[in-house]
Amino acid sequence: MHIAVVNGPNLNLLGVREPGRYGTASLGDIEAAVRARASGLGVDISWLQSNHEGELIEAIQALRGNADGALINAAAFTHTSLAIRDAALAAEVPFVELHLTNIWAREEERGRSLLADLAVGVVAGFGAQSYILALEGLVGWLRRSAGAAKSVEV
Ligand code: DQA
């Protein structure tokens, strides 16, 4: 099973950026923790961070046929980018939307997600652990879906 992790703008600054809000772990630390948990779950991970909307769109388009599922922290583009929403619609790959912070406990604009209704589920508010919870949730969901598909075949 292959899971792609897609990280949006400013997440490259984790650890330095507003540590009181986002924590002191760097994105590299989070990637290492996700890879360790993924290896325990027996899944492969690819990892991308970009500050550019077009690159994120291309990465999400490329999920189709290349990933079984995705974890997406689109950061501020979550709240603004119809183009990223359209890419997720086109990709037709199950994904979990995730955030380090509880976006509904912040400014009103952040409470609107253009991805949430397309996602299998949303994890927000657990800091770096949101990535691990999202991974566990998605892998469980994908395995249950595969099991359900098999029982229909039989
Ligand atoms: C974020 C929340 C967004 O509102 C914000 O723009 C980010 C990070 C989070 O992980 O909490 O950059 O996605």
Main attributes of the structure:
41% helix; Rossmann fold; 154 residues; binds 1,3,4-trihydroxy-5-OXO-cyclohexanecarboxylic acid; alpha/beta; five-stranded parallel sheet; 5 strands; 5 helices
Distance between the termini: 22 Å
Widest sheet: strand order?
Answer: 2-1-3-4-5
Which structural class do you get from the secondary structure elements?
alpha/beta
Helix and strand element order: EHHEHEHEEH
Indicate the CATH architecture: 3-Layer(aba) Sandwich
Q: In percent, how much strand structure appears in the residues?
A: 15-25%
Characterize the biggest β-sheet: 5 strands, parallel
CATH fold naming? Rossmann fold
Rounded mean pLDDT is: 96
> What ligands does this structure carry?
1,3,4-trihydroxy-5-OXO-cyclohexanecarboxylic acid
**CATH homologous superfamily, by name?**
Dehydroquinase, class II
**Structural domains: how many:** 1
Shape: globular
Based on CA atoms alone, the radius of gyration comes out at 15 Å
Structure description:
This protein is α/β, with parallel strands linked by helices and 154 residues long. It has one domain: Rossmann fold. Helices cover 41% and strands 17% of the residues. The radius of gyration is 15 Å and the shape is globular. The model has no long low-confidence stretch (mean pLDDT 96). 1,3,4-trihydroxy-5-OXO-cyclohexanecarboxylic acid binds next to loops.
